[in-house]
Amino acid sequence: MLEDIVKKILQARVYEAALETPISPAPFLSRRLDNQILIKREDLQPVYSFKIRGAYNKLAQLSQAQRDKGVIAASAGNHAQGLAMAAKQLGVRAVIVMPRITPDIKVQAVRARGARVVLRGDAFSEAQTHALELIEEYGYTYIPPFDDIDVVAGQGTVGMEILRQHTGRLDAIFVPVGGGGLIAGVAAYVKYLRPEIKVIGVEAEDSACLKAALEAGERVTLDQVGVFAEGVAVAQIGEAPFAIMRDLVDGVITVNTDEMCAAVKDTFEDTRAVAETSGALALAGLKKYVQQTGAEGETLLCINSGANTNFDRLQHIAERTELGEQREAILAVTIPERPGSFKKFCKTVGKRMVTEFNYRYADHENAHIFVGVQVKPGGEDRIEVIRKLREAGYPVEDLTDNELAKLHIRHLGGGRPQQHFDEEVYRFEFPERPGALMNFLTHLPANWNISLFHYRNHGAAYGRVLVGMQVPNGDRFHVEEHFEEIGYRFWKETDNAAYRLFMA
């Protein structure tokens, strides 16, 4: 089977539309990590991602009768743009069904490349269902984003170019994983010609469908999928990709939001390219690999899979970068409510920059401060700061990995209610579209009172929302049943230390 896949990769018709992208050295990162770091630049494709390869190759294999009927896909991102451009170049009518929450920049990009856009539903599954309905009605040919052998072959040309362009030592290739089309193609070609090179998949922690499948020995469907890295937000690894690469990959690394944001910055500093979060995913995994294995003197290559990011997301990415580099510790510290306390606290911290300090009077004895402290990468320095503070008698909560603290608490004023009352606090992801809030409110019982609400736009398809509610005792055990009816992702935060210290 492997030989057949490699033949398909060699015969793939991608260069009628796609470019052979270069491999860029990363000198700053190489010095910092004590390894030679290389970046394969798929962000330089005409549609700013590798997806043009698989989409064009699939279209090129269709019969004339299939082309005459037109093609269709459900997509909120890079596959949509790749298919739109491929169809235009081959003179094929294309229909792209996109969720209504798709950022306008992506909708306009697809339309600019000649495809007809149909907006339907608030989630990919709804767009997919409508695409299948249109196929039944009009006979369109469906072009899948990853679960197809011709798509895999088109993406596999990335691996072919890597081995042709870099003929020297290469220890490992790090590949971003969503549905698996790219890593299946790269792994097949690389392992056939140079089996000694490691091929390592990198997934977002909250959409690690390949990791789950490898652990289970079969494809599984994730209950929930994170949306921060939209390009890899897939609940189940593709059937065809998994069959190809399940025995070829050498491992899977998962990374979090902060690590992806730090990798966006690293990519920019070495190449001046602004990668999307899923585009920087492989580099984040490469860095984690070096940290975990202690690798030195190796040649490591990662694939920058795309650069289709919204400009207004950059502020949020920049905010999270220092945390991703482990250069900032976010701490909740209790200090005495008296003159000179802040000065004494700073003296204990030592010659480290205080990057953030949030405080609001709570009572006459103690103050809870939300503080950011600059630390050295690696985590040991953060542990040392916390140790010194505790030895000095300060109660400390480490909030560096606390999503509630990073998304909401640090941006709130620290206000507290004048009198005690019970409230339930939940964190939500609302679809970024008109009517999302009203839909939420109309599903809540009339006798529930909203006691806290915080929302920030991050330029993504989903908004992060923090909600506090006063819920009658009789409803306490049924709160989440109402949320499940709404269909938005949610997390209970009532017992979160960040909320308890600064907002309760």
UniProtKB/TrEMBL annotation:
SUPFAM superfamilies in alphabetical order: ACT-like, Tryptophan synthase beta subunit-like PLP-dependent enzymes
EC number: 4.3.1.19
All residue ranges annotated as the ACT-like domain in the record: 329-401, 424-495
Keyword Lyase: yes
Entry GO MF terms: L-serine ammonia-lyase activity; pyridoxal phosphate binding; threonine deaminase activity
UniProt function note: Catalyzes the anaerobic formation of alpha-ketobutyrate and ammonia from threonine in a two-step reaction. The first step involved a dehydration of threonine and a production of enamine intermediates (aminocrotonate), which tautomerizes to its imine form (iminobutyrate). Both intermediates are unstable and short-lived. The second step is the nonenzymatic hydrolysis of the enamine/imine intermediates to form 2-ketobutyrate and free ammonia. In the low water environment of the cell, the second step is accelerated by RidA.
Name this polypeptide is given: L-threonine dehydratase
Source organism of this protein record: Modicisalibacter muralis
